[in-house]
Amino acid sequence: MSTENKYSVPELVSFVRQGDAVAYQQLYQRFAAKILRTCKKMYLCHQDAEEVVQEVFLKVWEKREGLDSSLSFNAYLFTIMRSSIFIRSRKQALEIAYKQYQLNYGVQVTCNTEEEMEFKELKLFSEKAIASLPKGQQEVFKLKFTEHLTAEEIALRLHLSKRTVENQLYKATKRLKQEFQSSELIPSDLFFLLLIF
């Protein structure tokens, strides 16, 4: 048996947790190509896909002391990958959503500086509205729309029932919708369009 396949993934994860760079390299060799292929299936260009692979494994090394060899390392990698892709795409997606808003509402923007200022104002308003939510609602809402976790994943992370998570999400979105409806700055449907991305 080659040295490369001598240890199981859980054993390698345990070694990495202790700072073993050789075990880390072996995990990289086992999983990097799979992550790269998945990124390309999600329509990332080759360069962006390679950067995501590097980001994923950098995160693994940075968080190595918190690794749990009893959990699926494959699932852990793909959770990081998904988050990395969403973060990478976030700005572009928001810009697309805002441009769609301009088309839908007939907003004419004549200069890039003006558009940039409006976009920053919109983003700041959204962030303040989210920050005004009660702590529990805010935490669940951010996990849902920033880290793009499902209700089940949020429930597991926060040690809550799925029903509690869904209830918190409902209350948060209802409150935000009311706040945006009362504001002349941003139509509520634009805010929720941004959340889709």
TrEMBL record:
Stretches assigned to the RNA polymerase sigma factor 70 region 4 type domain: 128-176
Domain RNA polymerase sigma-70 region residue range list: 27-92
A Pfam family it matches: Sigma70_r4_2
Keywords, in A-Z order: DNA-binding, Sigma factor, Transcription, Transcription regulation
Record InterPro entries: RNA_pol_sigma-70-like (IPR039425), RNA_pol_sigma-70_dom (IPR014284), RNA_pol_sigma70_ECF_CS (IPR000838), RNA_pol_sigma70_r2 (IPR007627), RNA_pol_sigma70_r4_t2 (IPR013249), RNA_pol_sigma_r2 (IPR013325), RNA_pol_sigma_r3/r4-like (IPR013324), WH-like_DNA-bd_sf (IPR036388)
Lineage top rank: taxon: Bacteria
Family: Belongs to the sigma-70 factor family. ECF subfamily.
Name listed for the protein in its UniProt record: RNA polymerase sigma factor
